[in-house]
Amino acid sequence: MMFKNSIKLLCANFDKVWKLLLYHIICIGIYVGLLAIFYNTYIDMANLAINQSGIEEIFKSGTLYGASVAEGLTAVGNLAINFFKELFINHIGLGIYFCLLSFYILPLFLNVGKVVTCEMMYGYMSACQKQSFTGSLLKTLRSSLAYSSLKVLYAIPFNALIVASMIGLTRIDNAIFDYIMPFVFVIVPALLMAFKETFNAGWAPAKVVYNQNVCKSYWIGMRAVLRRGARVFSTSFIIFLLAIVLSVVLGLYAIIIILPLISPLLHIFEMVMFFSSQGMRFYVDNDTVLSPKRLEEVDKIEDAKYLI
């Protein structure tokens, strides 16, 4: 039901997809602009890594068969490893600059967009209100920056585990494994990302709904997640599995369509999970208010005062 209601809310609030996409494009544009200051150096390191990995010869987009996929995924892993190796060997300062922008600054501002989306969804789900993205951004900027700063650091171990597992899979040299590797490469990251989502799903919604400090919001969110932990994990797994399968089957160009949808869908799913776990009624569309059958916590007047 959480997945179904998330899809319904996504369709009813599709304008938020475009707003969040525009925000992401602006953030990525600023990120690319900051990297472009040292454009020539990064391009040289990238070309060197491409030549060493051999990705041009063996990588094929949109295929799902045997050794070709295994070789392609191995080449991608080699490309990433060679790029960072050459960058840090030859230009350690630019390597640190690249990592700071890529793994902290960019995720920080993307997480600000997550809080803004949750804030807009809170207005819609609690009172069927439409809120502007810019207004919500300015309203929540201070709290969203505090949340994002800690969230990026908190996510590092999870992201490191996912990346390490993917690189580890590409290191396996076995003829039989080459044929099952495409399936393993779909299931393993979907499981790991679902695991990560389970530990993060309630954080932003709790911050938006209860407006507590970052640490207290995390524990409120975790209590909400644990009430429906199995459902949260399984629904997250389905979302990530579908996204990865579509990307692999349809090719890299499918990511252009999938990524703008997967991000707001996850934000909406988190809000649906939180409202359902707290026993809070919410709008699914303009004419339908959903009341969870098993209330874990009775609505408080101050939380439901905008509910018609």
Identify the strand order in the major beta sheet.
1-2
Share of residues in strands: under 5%
Number of extended strands: 2
> Counting H and I runs of at least 4 residues, what is the number of helices?
13
Largest β-sheet summary: 2 strands, antiparallel
Poorly predicted spans: 60-67, 295-308
Shape assignment: globular
- The helix fraction, in percent, is over 70%
Structural class: mainly alpha
Beginning-to-end CA distance, first to last residue: 23 Å
Mean pLDDT: 85
Radius of gyration from the alpha-carbon trace, in angstroms: 21 Å
Order of helices and strands: HHHHHHHHHHHHEEH
Provide the descriptors you would attach to this structure in a database record.
two-stranded antiparallel ribbon; 2 strands; 308 residues; disordered C terminus; mainly alpha; 13 helices; globular
Topology:
Blueprint: H1 2-12, H2 15-35, H3 39-53, H4 55-58, H5 66-90, H6 92-127, H7 133-171, H8 175-198, H9 203-210, H10 214-227, H11 229-250, H12 255-278, E1 282-285, E2 288-290, H13 301-304
Antiparallel strand pairs: 1-2
Helix pairs in contact: 1-12, 2-6, 2-12, 3-5, 5-6, 5-7, 5-8, 6-7, 6-9, 6-12, 7-8, 8-11, 9-10, 10-12, 11-12
Write a short abstract of this structure:
This protein has 308 residues and is mostly helical. The protein has helices spanning 2-12, 15-35, 39-53, 55-58, 66-90, 92-127, 133-171, 175-198, 203-210, 214-227, 229-250, 255-278, 301-304, and strands at residues 282-285, 288-290.
